[in-house]
Structure formats: C-alpha cells, structure tokens
Specification:
The protein has 354 residues and is of the alpha+beta class. It folds into three domains: 117 residues, Rossmann fold (3-Layer(aba) Sandwich); 147 residues, 2-Layer Sandwich (D-amino Acid Aminotransferase, Chain A, domain 1), CATH 3.30.470.20; 68 residues, ATP-grasp fold, A domain (Dna Ligase, domain 1), CATH 3.30.1490. Helices cover 36% and strands 22% of the residues. The strands form three sheets. Strands 10, 11, 12, 13, 14 and 15 form a six-stranded antiparallel β-sheet that branches. Helix 7 crosses helix 8. It is globular, with a radius of gyration of 20 Å. The structure holds adenosine-5'-diphosphate and magnesium ion. Magnesium ion binds next to loops. Adenosine-5'-diphosphate binds next to strand 7, strand 9 and strand 15.
C-alpha cells in the first residue's frame, strides 16, 4: 500500500485525448475504471480534452456517450488539473489513451518529466510502436518479417505523382495497402487494386501523416497476440481475426481489422507457438514494456509477418486482449492488477526514462 500505510494507491485513468481513437479511449478508460480493484486502488477518472488539457471528471461525465458530450460540461462539472498538479493527485497514471499524443511517447514524455509512474511502454517503445515505418525498420533489423513497404513522403508526392505511381506499380505492385504511418483504428487504410486508385488513397493517407506507406497486400490469416511482462515477457493465447461479411463493401474495401475474433486461432499448436514467439520477439525488439498486443498475418506457407504492434491496446469490455487473458484463466480485473504491478516494477528499476 502507498507509503507503507493502508491508504489506497491512487490510479489516475487518463482517457479521451487528441487522436482519431478518442471514442475508443473513452470506452477503454471507463472499463479500466470499472474493473480496477477498489479495495486496493482509488481510480481517478481524468479526461484529456481535444487540446490536451487534463480534467478530473465526476462519474456522471465518465458515463457520457461521446467525448464531445463530456467536453460540453467540463467547465461546470469537472476540475482542471494543471500538468504540474498531477503528481499531487495520483500515484500512477493508467494511460487509457490510444493513438497520437497518447500512445506514441508524447504523453509518456510528459509523465517522465512530472516523475509520475505510468502504465505501459516508455517514450521510445511507444514511439516505435506508433510509427509503422520506423518500427518496421527496427523489426527487419531484428530478423522479424514485415510486409514489403514503400514510404511516400508528402512533399515528394506533391511534386512527382506520375513517377511515384509508376514506381509503386513495380514495387510493391497490386493489390497493395495504403495507410498513414502513424494512425490507428484503420484510419485512411485502403486496399488498392490498380494504379488509378492510388492518388485518392495516397491523398487520404497523407491527410493524416507526412509519410504514407504503400505495402504489399499480405494474404493469409490475420492473428493477434497479447504479450505481458517486462524483462521476461510472456505471450497470451493468440486469436484469429475473422473479417465478417458485413464489413466487406462493394469497392473491395474492408473496415480492416474490425472483424470478429476467435481465441485460440484455429491453427495447429506449433504455429500458435511460433506466433507467440514472434509476438515476444517483436515486444523485445521495439523495447515495449508491461503489455502490448501484436497483430500479425500468417501466410499460407506458414511465414508470420508482423503487421503492427499496439502498445496501448483497446481495453473495452469485449476486446480481444481480455479473451486471450481469459483463455489463460486471467480475469479482466486480474489483468489490470498485473498491469499496474508490472508498471510499478518497471518504473522502480528504470535508469532515466523508461
Ligand atoms: N499489408 C497488409 N496486407 C493485408 N492486410 C492488411 C495490410 N495492412 C493492413 N491490413 C489490414 O488492415 C487492418 C488495419 O491496418 P493496420 O496496419 O493494423 O492499421 P491501424 O493501425 O489503423 O490498425 C489490418 O488489421 C488488416 O486487416
Ligand atoms: Mg491495426
């Protein structure tokens, strides 16, 4: 217990935020709040508004339907917490944010400066986890298979569209996937089957980031695997992501990664083990900490390709990470408890930023 007394540990659960994933964050944060053991911890809901300011919110605001609904009443019903006051209010921050500024090392850097322990990966791991282009370079250097990826920089695209389109037709060729380097929730992710569709897809991706990725379309079974731990990370049971018929649309576009999940994935035991090994290697290579979920595709020939890590995976009640934990007999509350304990451990032994 805090300071060796029976006082509860105050967990600031930060949710909302500035990214395209703020609505998921609201749901994740609300669930983390609900599942935190109240006998040991005092969960404090803290809303980050669209401008990055923090507010301690009452339960009735936590239960609102959207971040917009929360923002409507911040001035009258919530209490602003200036950054420098945060350490006086909480003992640890559970980062319930997803996406830009929350999952990419920015908020983690702020918490380092404020000397507040926080949940999940540190500055570097978070940044590598968010930046698909940089992360893939590190993974490839570590001998981990990633999709063939061609970056397209915004200024370059503006100057030489024709030349770039010709080059992309050679490598990676069609079909390909176009996406911003640093986004989530399938934002501006498009499958492109011919050169004619490249400009619209690249324009859309470059609205979200200065680098767009054009990558080979990897055929196979999409799988995802949670990893938990610090120095000796452990993989949970891998799940299979099944695209449902309803997410297929006429233009050969999916709402990617939004299908149903099946845990364990319907694959032989030795393949499940290789998926777990790949997930742990990815976790280590990217300097991830405490927990993460690694998305992969198993090619028909058996090769496992890492699509992306999620350093702060969704924590909504029905999310796949909880199914994987349940397969190992771990409840939602127990998983959150382990995450908090591992985070305290990581911060107690760090030298410099996590
Ligand atoms: N190279 C690829 N080959 C096949 N499918 C892909 C590829 N890239 C993305 N997808 C599909 O699109 C989804 C979203 O892409 P992802 O890279 O995970 O972006 P996000 O960070 O937005 O989740 C994936 O879950 C997968 O279904
Ligand atoms: Mg994804």
């Amino acid at each position: 217990m805090k300071n060796g007394t029976t006082e509860k540990i105050r967990v600031g659960i930060v949710l909302g935020g500035m990214s395209s994933e703020k609505e998921v964050s609201l749901e994740s944060g609300r669930n983390i709040f609900g599942k935190t053991d109240k006998a040991r911890y005092e969960p404090v809901p803290i809303f980050m508004d669209g401008g990055g300011l923090l507010w301690e919110i009452p339960l009735k605001l936590l239960m609102r339907n959207s971040t917009r609904d929360v923002e409507l009443d911040l001035e009258t019903q919530a209490r602003r917490i200036p950054y420098e006051s945060l350490s006086g209010r909480v003992d640890i921050v559970y980062v319930g944010l997803h996406g830009k500024y929350g999952e990419d090392g920015c908020f983690q850097g702020l918490l380092e400066l404020l000397r507040i322990p926080y949940v999940g990966s540190g500055v570097l791991g978070s940044a590598l986890g968010m930046d698909k282009y940089m992360g893939r370079k590190v993974l490839a250097m570590s001998g981990i298979a990633v999709p063939e990826t061609v970056p397209v920089m915004g200024p370059e695209w503006d100057e030489g569209r024709e030349r770039i389109i010709d080059a992309l037709g050679e490598k990676p060729g069609f079909p390909c996937i176009v996406k911003p380097s640093r986004e989530g929730c399938s934002t501006a992710v498009a499958k492109v089957v011919s050169a004619g569709d490249l400009p619209a897809a690249l324009d859309a991706a470059l609205q979200w980031d200065t680098i767009a990725l054009v990558e080979e379309f990897v055929e196979g079974m999409e799988v995802t695997c949670g990893v938990i731990g610090n120095d000796a990370p452990m993989a949970l049971t891998p799940s299979e992501t099944i695209p449902t018929a309803s997410v297929l649309s006429l233009e050969d576009k999916f709402l990617y990664g939004q299908g149903e999940n099946k845990t364990p994935a319907r694959l032989p035991g030795h393949v499940l083990e290789r998926i777990q090994e790949t997930a742990v290697c990815t976790f280590r290579a990217l300097n991830l900490k405490v927990y993460a979920r690694i998305d992969m595709i198993v090619r028909p020939g058996g090769e496992i390709v890492v699509l992306e890590p999620n350093s702060l995976p969704g924590m909504t009640p029905s999310t796949v990470l909880f199914h994987q934990a349940a397969a190992s007999g771990i409840t939602q509350s127990e998983l959150i408890e382990r995450i908090l304990t591992l985070s305290f451990e990581a911060h107690a032994s760090k030298k410099g930023p996590l």
